[in-house]
Amino acid sequence: MRIEARIFLAVALFAWLIAAAYGFWTRVSGGHIEWAGFAALLLSGGLLGIPGSFFWFVSRRIDPRPEDRGDAEIAEAAGELGFFSPGSYWPFGIALSAMVTGVGFAFVQIWLVIVGVIAILCTAGGLLFEYYIGGRRAVPPPSR
C-alpha cells in the first residue's frame, strides 16, 4: 500500500503546488486571483489526499506486500489475484446504462437521467449477484 500512498500523496502535493503558483500568477497578471481554478486545484489536492492518507495509514498496520519491498522477488507476487467472471455481459449493460445517463445529462433530459440511473443500479446489482442467482448457481445433485 505504500506505493499507492506515495502516488496519491505526490499528486496531491503537486496539485497544491500548482494551486499556489496559479494563484500567484493570476494575482500578478490580472490584479486578482481567479478563484474557480484556484479552488479546483486546492480541492483536487484535498480529494487526492484522502485516499493517499488512507493508504498510508493502512500500510503502517499491515505487513509489507512484495511490491512494497525493494528486495522482493517477482515470484513472491505470483498466485491467484481474485476471481474474474469469464463470460459476463453485465459490464456491457453497465456501460450502456452509463451512456444513457450521459446522454441524458448532455441533452438536459431529466427523465433520461432517471432511467439511466435506474438502469445503472439494476445492472450493477445484476453484476453483483450474478453467481448467487440465475443460471450459474450451483445445482445440488438429485436425491434418490
Overview of the molecule:
By secondary structure, the protein is mostly helical. The chain folds into 2 domains: 69 residues; 47 residues. It contains 4 helices and no strands. The longest helix is centred in the N-terminal third of the chain and has 29 residues.
Layout of secondary structure:
Layout: H1 2-30, H2 35-61, H3 90-106, H4 110-128
Helix pairs in contact: 1-2, 3-4
Task: Looking at this protein, list some descriptive labels.
about 140 residues; mainly alpha; about 65% helix; flat
User: What is the oligomer described by this structure?
Assistant: single chain
How many angstroms separate the termini?
52 Å
Kindly provide the radius of gyration, computed on alpha-carbon positions and rounded to a whole number of angstroms. Answer: 24 Å
Average pLDDT, to the nearest integer?
A: 90
pLDDT under 50 segments (min length 5)?
A: none
Shape: flat
| Helix proportion | 55-70%
Q: What is the N-to-C succession of helices and strands?
A: HHHH
Question: Beta fraction of the residues?
Answer: under 5%
The number of helical elements comes to: 4
